[in-house]
């Protein structure tokens, strides 16, 4: 078994040795490692085997060396023989080389020169090629600098783009190109800042020039409006049969022909009208827009521009505090607004997307609300109708101008209706002053007419027609006073003034007619009526003036139909139209006439009261003076003369005759009733404590004069003793005391046919008690004569019965 293992070990060592001999030394490591991985004594046996193998190889080497030794010796001998020849050859070679070197020195020098020239030529060629590549870059960069210096920033940005994308990549390895590439972003930012600065300057410039732009646009709109009005008039006259329009100082008709405007002045005016492009340089906006577009930052630019324009819009819409004082203040305000939106409209159409229609509409709606609010506020401060009218014309031109640029202006025309109301209010206030001046300057006397020319002049101012007066010779008098034609003329002037506001409102004739009639109604029913009422109430207006006022209002009432015809002729709207408003002058003048009549009654009563205050009765007198009191006779004379004035009231036709008679009768009846009531109150005055029979007799004389006045028919038209019935209460009361017919009064009291039916028991009792007190204090009665005692008892008995009657009435 041990022999077998030894043989295997020997065989393995042989294999290892063969492997070591046949492989590279770098791969011996794993083979040697396997020796140590085997049995413990394998290493020793391997070393022994290795030594044996080495000895075998040494013996083989020695045998080979012995075999070749003689050949080596022979070779050495041959080399020694050749050495001498080699040294000789070496000397010859060196000598030949020396001569060759000496002969080739000049060639070598020339060759080196040629080589240097070739190198220089090659370098020059390379340099030219590289410069040809760099020159376009440098030229473009130089062009960029020139463009920046000349402020052609958009072109500069395009040049930068070409440099970056085309030229610099070709020579990017050169340092100067790298510097250029690094500078380009900085240059872009500079261009961006410069263009934004230009834009800010532009925004500031248009803020300052907006009023000039707006003024030019509104002037142009005014010229077109004037031209269209002239054309419309010519069309109405039949000069033209086709619509025309104006463009650049020439008139175009639909068939394509051109005709010059009527006057050279109009052409010059058209040529002088400057547009927004003439007044404002828009290039900064275009340039900045293009620059930001190229830089890819267009949205930022659009946002900034719109934000700044919104701020400017708010500033433009802020009015000056005193704008309402002059029309120039409104004109500047409108010019700025128009200029702002003309610029925006130009930007809208000249650029793509910088501002949109939605943006301008938003600005306009915001502006429109502010404008309307401002105008409402400031027009409320305006008291001058001429200023309001000029403001209306400005608003119309303002609206027409902006409407021409596509902005909706319906709300402005709606506002004009509010301004129209304000205008009418200012007109009404102005005409209040006019009417007051007319009334104050009037003499309230019939108009004297000396010649036919004067008569025609009055008739031309006021529609007066009276056949009887026309038949009369000159000189003659017209029934109305001077204020009537003046008021009629001023009403027509008011209609003209109101019509001025209605022009250019783009309203139909029917609407204008309705507006005129409504404003005229306000003038009649409010202004003129108020002035008449105030005139009637003035203390210095006497009865004569009141009578003349009644006459005047009658003629003004008759003239209302001519005012309606006047409005119809202006508006060409038939009065039979369904919705035509009627004038309320009839009611106005009737009310004024009734007020004048009432004031006549009031002043008559006041005058009667003044005379009554002059009464100075001796209430304890023993017997009367035998004649009426002086104050009463003066009062009656005053009433007679006063009622004669009523003969001047118009009675040229049946209606006026009945009206004048009614006024006179009513005034006379009112005066008599008031006089009767005043006399009755004088008797029953609580401060009057006693009345004698003599005073009663004196009072009876005065009442008799009143009755005589009533029966004398101071005003014709009373039937029978109607006027005397105003004193019936006094007459029956005085008869009762004068006759001392108490038995009849008490017996017939309450009967419809009683002689003293109008005597009230309380009135009789109050007067009887005043006489009772007098009887007690009378010295004659104090003597206690039988008759006097009987009379005193009778008075006491009557007093008791009257008190029972009064108590019965109260229960």
UniProtKB/TrEMBL annotation:
Pfam families: EXOC6_Sec15_N (PF20651), Sec15_C (PF04091)
Keywords assigned: Coiled coil, Exocytosis, Transport
Highest taxon in the source lineage: Eukaryota
Protein name (database record): Exocyst complex component
Primary role: Component of the exocyst complex involved in the docking of exocytic vesicles with fusion sites on the plasma membrane.
Keyword Transport: yes
Domain Exocyst complex subunit EXOC6/Sec15 C-terminal: residue ranges: 412-770
Coiled coil location: 83-113
Gene that produces this protein: exoc6
Similarity section: Belongs to the SEC15 family.
């Amino acid at each position: 078994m041990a022999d077998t293992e030894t043989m295997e070990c020997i065989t393995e060592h042989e294999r290892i040795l063969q492997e070591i001999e046949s492989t590279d030394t770098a791969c011996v490591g794993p083979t040697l490692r396997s020796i140590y991985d085997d049995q413990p004594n394998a290493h020793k046996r391997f070393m022994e085997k290795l030594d044996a193998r080495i000895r075998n190889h040494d013996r083989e080497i020695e045998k080979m060396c012995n075999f070749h030794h003689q050949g080596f010796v022979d070779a050495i001998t041959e080399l020694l023989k050749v050495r001498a020849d080699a040294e000789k050859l070496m000397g010859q070679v060196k000598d030949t080389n020396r001569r060759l070197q000496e002969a080739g020195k000049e060639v070598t020098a020339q060759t080196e020169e040629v080589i240097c020239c070739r190198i220089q030529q090659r370098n020059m060629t390379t340099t030219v090629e590289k410069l040809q590549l760099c020159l376009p870059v440098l030229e473009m960069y130089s062009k960029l600098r020139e463009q920046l210096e000349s402020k052609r920033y958009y072109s500069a940005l395009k040049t930068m783009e070409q440099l970056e994308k085309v030229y610099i990549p070709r020579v990017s390895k050169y340092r100067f190109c790298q510097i250029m590439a690094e500078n380009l972003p900085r240059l872009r930012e500079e261009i961006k800042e410069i263009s934004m600065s230009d834009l800010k300057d532009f925004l500031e410039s248009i803020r300052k020039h907006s009023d000039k732009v707006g003024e030019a646009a509104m002037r142009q709109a005014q010229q077109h409006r004037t031209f269209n009005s002239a054309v419309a008039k010519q069309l109405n006259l039949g000069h033209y049969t086709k619509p025309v329009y104006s463009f650049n100082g020439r008139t175009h008709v639909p068939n394509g022909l051109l005709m010059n405007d009527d006057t050279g002045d109009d052409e010059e005016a058209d040529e002088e009208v400057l547009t927004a492009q003439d007044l404002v340089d828009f290039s900064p906006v275009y340039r900045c827009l293009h620059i930001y577009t190229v830089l890819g930052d267009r949205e930022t630019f659009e946002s900034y521009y719109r934000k700044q324009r919104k701020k400017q819009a708010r500033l433009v819409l802020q009015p000056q505090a005193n704008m309402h004082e002059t029309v120039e203040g409104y004109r500047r305000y409108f010019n700025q607004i128009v200029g702002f939106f003309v610029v925006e409209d130009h930007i809208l159409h000249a650029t793509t997307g910088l501002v949109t229609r939605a943006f301008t509409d938003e600005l306009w709606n915001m502006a429109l609300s502010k404008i309307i609010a401002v105008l409402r506020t400031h027009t409320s401060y305006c008291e001058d109708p001429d200023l309001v009218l000029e403001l209306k014309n400005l608003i119309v031109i303002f609206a027409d101008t902006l409407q021409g640029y596509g902005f909706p202006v319906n709300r402005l025309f709606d506002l004009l209706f509010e301004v129209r109301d304000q205008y009418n209010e200012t007109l009404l206030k102005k005409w209040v002053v006019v009417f007051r001046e007319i009334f104050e300057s009037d003499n309230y006397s019939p108009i004297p007419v000396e010649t036919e020319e004067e008569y025609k002049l009055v008739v031309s101012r006021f529609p007066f027609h009276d056949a009887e007066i026309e038949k009369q010779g000159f000189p003659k008098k017209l029934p109305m006073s001077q204020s009537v034609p003046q008021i009629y003329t001023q009403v027509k002037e008011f209609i003209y003034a109101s019509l001025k506001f209605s022009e250019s409102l783009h309203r139909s004739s029917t609407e204008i007619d309705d507006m005129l009639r409504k404003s005229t109604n306000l003038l009649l029913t409010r202004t003129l009526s108020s002035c008449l009422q105030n005139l009637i109430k003035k203390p210095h207006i006497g009865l004569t003036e009141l009578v003349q006022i009644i006459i005047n209002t009658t003629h003004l009432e008759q003239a209302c139909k001519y005012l309606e015809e006047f409005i119809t002729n202006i508006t060409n709207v038939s009065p039979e139209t369904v919705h035509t408003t009627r004038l309320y002058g009839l009611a106005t003048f009737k009310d004024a006439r009734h007020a004048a009549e009432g004031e006549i009654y009031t002043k008559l009563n006041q005058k009667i009261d003044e005379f009554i205050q002059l009464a100075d009765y001796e209430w304890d007198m023993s017997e009367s003076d035998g004649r009426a009191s002086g104050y009463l006779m003066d009062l009656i004379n005053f009433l007679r003369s006063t009622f004669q004035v009523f003969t001047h009231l118009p009675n040229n036709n049946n209606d006026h005759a009945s009206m004048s008679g009614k006024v006179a009768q009513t005034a006379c009846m009112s005066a008599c009733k008031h006089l009767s009531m005043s006399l009755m109150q004088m008797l029953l005055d609580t401060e009057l404590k006693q009345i004698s029979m003599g005073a009663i007799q004196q009072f009876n004389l005065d009442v008799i004069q009143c009755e005589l006045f009533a029966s004398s028919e101071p005003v014709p038209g009373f039937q029978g003793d109607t006027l005397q019935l105003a004193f019936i209460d006094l007459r029956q009361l005085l008869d009762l005391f004068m006759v001392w017919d108490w038995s009849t009064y008490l017996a017939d009291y309450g009967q419809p046919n009683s002689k003293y039916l109008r005597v009230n028991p309380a009135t009789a009792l109050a007067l009887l008690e005043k006489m009772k007190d007098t009887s007690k204090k009378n010295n004659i009665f104090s003597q206690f004569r039988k008759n006097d005692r009987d009379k005193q008892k009778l008075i006491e008995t009557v007093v008791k019965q009257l008190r029972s009657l009064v108590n019965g009435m109260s229960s």
